[in-house]
Design a protein that fits this description.
Elements lengths: L6 E4 L7 H9 L2 E4 L13 E6 L2 E6 L23 H13 L5 H8 L10 H16 L5 E3 L11 E3 L10 H4 L13 H4 L7 H8 L3 H4 L1
Parallel strand pairs: 1-2, 1-6, 2-5
Antiparallel strand pairs: 3-4
Amino acid sequence: MSNLIDTAVLTSAYFGPIQYYSKLYRYPNIHLEQHDNYIKQTYRNRCVISGPQGPITLTIPTAKPATNKVEMREVEISDHGNWRHLHWKAIESSYNSTPYYEHYKDYFLPFFEQKYPLLFQFNNELQEIICSLIKIKPNIQYTSTYQFDFDEHTLDLRETIHPKKDHKLHDPNFKIKPYYQVFSEQTGFLPNLSILDLLFHKGPETILYL
């Protein structure tokens, strides 16, 4: 029997990092976890973009749940702090001088002009847009229950792709190659930022990079 891994299990992600989208491209089957307990300070509700002073973390505020544990699919977005306006302004100021910002911005602006009640829905619809722009078609299935263990054909990446974990230690199969970034003279190359960074800089070549 072949031990080829053909399935990856991922969490939901807000403008997930390049590492995340490399898995969507690489694996024939993706199981997207929706029954995990929501955990703060992860890519579920945050992304990292570039700025002239270095990385900028954008975090979507979430409503306080009624219980201590809430499944990801039930997490509600909060309107606290005018975050939609602030996130879009940060994206605009970071990327308006990149080669492909004008080409792609109108696909994303509507997400910051309307209210989405659930974080999972918001992330999923953003992900669908990004995949269509990159021209990848991942075979995504949503989990029906939370599994702790998987067979030898499945790679569990739910806690591997994490803003506080070094991908070089936790995901050695993922390799980052430097590409042009508008602030690189000030900051040096910033690896594994949000897929937005790659898309706005590389445009149609994003899929070749992945």
